[in-house]
Amino acid sequence: MTEILAAARPLIALVGRPNVGKSTLFNRIAGRRMAIVEDEPGVTRDRNYADCEWDHRAISVVDTGGFEPGAPAEHAPDRLMRQVREQAQLAVDEAAAVVLVVDGRAGLTEVDRSVAGLLRRAGKRLFVAVNKMDSGGTEAEAPLSDFYELGFGEVFPVSAEHDRGVGELLDAIVAELQVPRTPAPEELTPLDEREEGEEGEEGGRAPDPDAPIRLAIIGRPNVGKSTFVNALLGEQRFVVSAVAGTTRDSIDSEITYKDRKFVVTDTAGIRRKRSIAQKVELYSVVRAMRSIDEAEVVACLLDASEAGVEQDARLLGLVAEKSKVLICVVNKWDLAEAEEATQAWYRKELAKRLPFISFAPMIFTSAKTGKNVAKVLDTAARLVQQSRARFPTPALNDLLENVQRAHPAPLARGKPVKLYYMAQVGYAPPTFAIQCNRPEAISGDYKRFLENRMREAFGLEVPIRFLFKERR
Ligand code: GDP
Ligand code: GDP
């Protein structure tokens, strides 16, 4: 494994016509949440996109059917065909693997065949999930052999509703994509105990503090992303060059600022290049997710006139879930200032509506005038330093002792809960293993309390993770 724990993960797209069971299958797969992520209060989960884990391997899954625009499509066959094909095309552009979901009771249809043809020509890794095979071969179910006609190699009978065959499908996907294993918490060795430059499952090198900073600019449509990126690239003080992006169609810009290299990805620029994509929310959501995965720092633009709307909350929920370094950029501040809004008011509103990102610094910008735009780069550099930092074990344990002396963890069923020892086990996000007598008895409140004390003690504005391990 590498030291960077919040690494990119392959995207699996579920494609198929309405009512075959895509969303049921999505919920089955998304139910396998990453064990490493604590449930944060106030996080809005996206209904159609999720990070999850199968067999200790990290994947993302998207239900393309969840983004169907407009009226129900069943009533207009032409429109249905077009919609499903568009979704398939988008999935093909962004996903590492595509699962074509078909209905084992209805048998193959014209739409299934057409979409299969499109997918085959795209040369993506393809899997067919024949859903609603609840009993594994009664007369109500079409014989599996019918579906081999689609020409995708192995065909997987599943019952999303009864959770049958889903594991076999996921096994095949992670094997085909060679998704690396994410170590379980108990497998992470404290950094202190590793050999200098040790590699392999539990080793890895410390991050280079001067490595270029990958910065993704995200935010809902019209919030000012393109204007913001143009303002950044237009700054006379910067040296700018275009570099090939890491994903299809993306153009990243390399900026040198105060002797530091930044690679900036603009999600809006990509969207604009593709005409069909403009109409489809799926594309912008999935693109944003991919650039979040690939970035080390995410600058999420918010509109100064509306603090924390639903769309912002969903996007930020994913940033938080991925434990990415985050900067909240409150843009169009020129307009808000004219209305005499204050930064203090905005901070309070946002803290109320999006409490799970309270650790992130907030910067008030005007992409239009360029005001404070460069400050986002200064902030990114400061945050990366925190995220790549090495925390000395004695300092961590002094803190742990002081915290418990002042506020011991609440008793659980009348017995004391003790935290014995803390050591750093990873970077980006800084991750700490804590040995304790009863990991399951530590409340979410106490974990957040400890996290806040850590933030105060070390001046941290980036996400951090704790892994609680049992020691008797
Ligand atoms: P989508 O439109 O493709 O997302 O399909 P949904 O997930 O909304 O499912 C459509 C219908 O099929 C719903 O009534 C589900 O309850 C049903 N369904 C989904 N999976 C199964 C399954 O494995 N077996 C059976 N019998 N019904 C299922
Ligand atoms: P995107 O969809 O997020 O890329 O948003 P754009 O960059 O296309 O901006 C949407 C609109 O907001 C455009 O009309 C911009 O001129 C305007 N805009 C962007 N940033 C600012 C700002 O800081 N102040 C004001 N007043 N307008 C802005």
* Beta-strand share of residues: 15-25%
Q: How many separate helices? A: 14
Structural class: alpha/beta
Mean pLDDT: 82
Poorly predicted ranges (pLDDT <50, ≥5 residues)? 1-6, 199-204, 270-279
Radius of gyration: 24 Å
Strand order of the largest sheet: 8-9-10-7-11-12-13
Q: Which H/E pattern describes the elements?
A: EHEEHEHEHEHEHEEEHHEHEHHEHHEEHE
Give the overall form.
globular
How would a crystallographer describe the biggest sheet?
7 strands, mixed
Q: Summarize the amount of helix as a percent range.
A: 25-40%
| Each distinct ligand | guanosine-5'-diphosphate
Distance between the termini: 29 Å
DSSP strand count: 16
Binding site for GTP 1: 16-23, 63-67, 131-134
InterPro entries: AAA+_ATPase (IPR003593), G_ENGA (IPR031166), GTP-bd (IPR006073), GTPase_Der (IPR016484), KH_dom-like (IPR032859), KH_dom-like_a/b (IPR015946), P-loop_NTPase (IPR027417), Small_GTP-bd (IPR005225)
Subunit structure: Associates with the 50S ribosomal subunit.
Keywords: GTP-binding, Nucleotide-binding, Repeat, Ribosome biogenesis
